Amino acid sequence: MAALSFATLKQRAEKIKELSTLPTVMLRILEVMNNPVADARDVEREIMEDPVITAKVLKMANSAFYGANRDISSVSQAVVLMGFAEVQNIALSVSIFSRFAEPTKVFDRRQFWEHCFATAVTAEALQRRVNAQTNDGFVAGLLHDIGRVVLDQYFPNEFRDIIAMAETQKIPLLDAERKVLGVTHGDIGYWVAEKWRLPPLLTDAILFHHSPFSCRESYVLTSIVHVADVISKAFSGYMKDEIVPSPKDESAFRLLNLDSEKVMSLADLISKKMEYFDTLVGSFA
């Protein structure tokens, strides 16, 4: 089977309107996240632009998970209760989930987003644990596999061939992607992220999340995402039927000084965060 050239892939993707820009609300939330003088009112102003995101944030704030002792009726109140980062993470998740919510017969989209959310939660925890000089772990984890959902939604025939090849030849999906497309979901995700004008730290994490030390400047964040990806797969059903999993980079685990005991200590955190995934994703996926 001849590989589809990346040039051909990009040319076809150029015609897909949904891939042309990142949702405006999400882009503005990312800008607020990187603004050191931003406050709750700035977050509220951007989130209120999207009624779906607003409703999700308020629903989460009033859920038993956060134990509010009064009704939370505004985004600014939600920020006070849950914290700046938590509200932003919820808003970003809803924005991405709703952007790629189209169900398919090839891919369990809900399971996919569950994995991405678990990776995001784990990456956020890891960046605090290793005192990384970044707060992009959640976003990078959420978007690390975005290339794969692009394949599923817009290139279903090629994606079906990839899955079939991985099963029949007993190879990792990553290798099947290279054979069918000439590139991997990391390459596709990188191209989409660049098109969305995401910062280099995030585009690198998406491109190199399977080979973190191929990234010279952002290898700490990329290693965090790689490790979070591996850990989250151990605690979810995502790609559980993959015959040959993609190899993990032991150097990334060593860089973060993680052994099996430390990895297992993250299990409780991941489990608690995943308790509200159904509420967060709702009717999407």
Sum this structure up briefly.
With about 280 residues, the protein is mostly helical. It is about 65% helix and about 0% strand.
CATH topology title of the domain at 6-22 and 104-281: Hypothetical protein af1432
Just name the CATH architecture of the domain at 6-22 and 104-281: Orthogonal Bundle
Please write the string of helix (H) and strand (E) elements: HHHHHHHHHHHHHHHHHH
CATH fourth-tier homologous superfamily of the domain at 6-22 and 104-281:
Hypothetical protein af1432
Report how far apart the termini are: 31 Å
Percent of residues in helices: 55-70%
Domain HDOD: 19-212
Organism: Candidatus Abyssobacteria bacterium SURF_17
Protein name: HDOD domain-containing protein
What does this structure look like?
This protein is an all-alpha fold and 285 residues long. It has a domain at 6-22 and 104-281: Hypothetical protein af1432. Helices cover 64% and strands 0% of the residues. It contains 18 helices and no strands. The protein has helices at 6-14, 24-33, 40-47, 51-61, 75-82, 84-99, 109-129, 137-143, 146-154, 156-169, 173-181, 185-195, 200-207, 219-234, 250-255, 260-265, 267-274, 277-281. It is globular, with a radius of gyration of 19 Å. The two termini are 31 Å apart. The mean pLDDT is 82.
